Amino acid sequence: MSAADGFDAVVVGSGPNGLIGAVTLAEAGLRVLLVEAAEEFGGGLRSGQLTGLDGFTHDWCATVLPLARASAAFRDLDLPVEWSFPAVQAAHPLDGQQAVLVHRDVAQTADGLGSRRDARAWRETVGAAARGGFGLADSLLSPLSVPRAPLRLVRYGMFGGLPATLLARTLFGGERGRAVLAGMAAHSMVDLRRPITGGYGLLLAALAHQVGWPVVRGGSARLAAALVTRFEERGGVAETGRPVKDLADVPRAGIILLDLTPRQVLGVCGERLPARYARGLRSYRYGPGVFKMDWALSGPVPWRDPAVAGAATVHLGGTLDEIARGEAEVAAGRIPERPYVLAVQPCAADPSRAPDGRHILWAYCHVPNGSAADMTAAIENQVERFAPGFRDLIIARTSHDTAAMERHNENLVGGDIAGGYSGLSQFVSRPVLSAHPWRTPLPGVYLCSGSTPPGAGVHGMGGYHAARLALADLGIRPGSQK
Fold first, then answer.
1. Do the strands 83-84 and 215-216 form a parallel or antiparallel pair, or are they unpaired?
2. 3-state SS of 187-213?
3. Any bridge partners for residue 258, and if so which?
4. Burial classification of residue 312, based on how many CB atoms lie within 10 Å of its CB (0-12 exposed, 13-18 middle, 19 or more buried)
5. Which of 17, 128, 363, 379 has the fewest CB atoms within 10 Å distance of its CB?
6. Residues 323 and 255 in one domain
7. CB 83: neighbour CB atoms within 10 A?
8. Cα(464)–Cα(459) distance, rounded to whole angstroms?
9. Same domain, yes or no, for 263 and 191?
10. How far, rounded to the nearest angstrom, does the alpha carbon of residue 132 sit from its chain's CA centroid?
């Protein structure tokens, strides 16, 4: 099968999906070339001194990685990275009362919701989703495969198919349970009044109990480095600074995996694509963008509720109604006055990210795709709301609007870090009309980005499914040698 230049397969793009796809192919015994346009591997798993100060390690995109702990793609590899877990998996501050804390322990979390009814509802929904091994996660991350846990999937679907607003009001009578579920569901970047947003919230909350919400000690780039090392150990060749603008830019090979979104695929494949398939790519819908900020701080964030300091992930948005209103504004193409802000304080789990006594914080809010709005004040106002005196600790800050996010990574079209709209209309069918959405009409060419099922997140399953499908098309069993 080998091409004349010696490569059996080429992988374009080294985000988590491209890296997992490359490793999967290499572990099957193929000679694989991995090319990356940027000067470093990782895509959303890159880290650096974003505020320009020595000793502060910031992540460009992903920091808290529960899906990497839960997905079959990463579990199978058992990479030698050091995971650091915060004392509290996630926190949700509220005005005038203690924050809602999500712990590894289901009962401890449930007891903090303020009523017996709400505690029972948490145990019977989120707690139930967290029990029983990885069958449910595997079923959700392989949406076109035979379910690993069909009964659990049916039960989950009864709740998860609902809009987050309806699910929260159905399950919980009090403000605390409703708010924390909304904060979880808003990770979807979808209007919380839309179907399946409840499912996003349930899954993320369940993962906090099942595998935790950890960070990689030393920065997310170390996870990418571990994948590159595993790939090279299996004989793979990895090259940075290799932009691909056309399929002719890569060596001939029997398999080509593209860790690209539909817009980039159109550019790379051009007129080779059948008209109908090209139309499907052009009609692909991108979701909201993000405005991201990174801060270097002289000390820990002064949360009004000190317990929030123990959480690596903090959801800043207040009540269910407030979060839902802000996300609805973004979905309608408007800028919310008080946006939902997802904040991460990595030093809560990994103090090595900053010099002794100092801290880092990053946060983003959702904005309409391609928005040029400067959300600096709005984001800092939300932090200050729950941590008065926060601004006094800022040593340095940097911000990235949607254009800056896309410049850093062309897959983040209009600042969309999810690889496309994550609502029901694209949940399974993304990106185009195909029984196997990872396979293109071009022989040997496959898609493996977050624009393919199961969608966004550092789980690597897009690359996992695409690579395994490519191997099956060639009659090669994954994990075997040629």
1. antiparallel
2. HHCCCCCCCCHHHHHHHHHHHHHHCCC
3. 12, 447
4. buried
5. 128
6. no
7. 17
8. 9
9. no
10. 24
pLDDT by residue, tens only, the chain of 482 residues = 344 468 999 999 999 999 999 999 999 999 999 999 999 999 999 999 999 999 999 999 999 999 999 999 999 899 999 999 999 999 999 999 999 999 999 999 999 999 999 999 999 999 999 998 999 999 999 988 888 888 899 999 999 999 999 999 999 999 999 999 999 999 999 999 999 999 999 999 999 999 999 999 999 999 999 999 999 999 999 999 999 999 999 999 999 999 999 999 999 998 999 999 999 899 999 999 999 999 999 999 999 999 999 999 999 999 999 999 999 999 999 999 999 999 999 999 999 999 999 999 999 999 999 999 999 999 999 999 999 999 999 999 999 999 999 999 999 999 999 999 998 877 655 555 455 789 999 999 999 999 999 999 999 999 999 999 999 999 988 765 55
In this structure, is residue 480 part of a structural domain? no
Residues 411 and 458 grouped into a single domain: no
Distance CA 82, CA 300 (A): 23
300 with 279, same domain? no
Which two three-digit tokens encode residue 216? 């990689």
Q: Do 39 and 75 reside in the same domain of the chain?
A: yes
Domain end (from 398, 417, 436): 417
Report if residue 2 sits inside a domain: no
Nearest to 52 by CA among 410, 397, 428, 333: 397
At 35, which CATH number? Answer: 3.50.50.60
Alpha carbon 39 to chain centroid distance? 22
What is the number of H-type helices and E-type strands within the chain? 19, 16
- Look up the domain containing 203 and give its range: 105-211
Strands, E, within 171-268: which ranges?
Answer: 215-216, 237-239, 255-258
State how far the Cα of 74 lies from the Cα of 394, in Å rounded to an integer: 36
Same domain, yes or no, for 265 and 190? no
Number of domains in the chain: 3
Tell whether 3 is covered by a domain. Answer: no
Query: Does residue 14 lie within any of the structural domains?
Result: yes
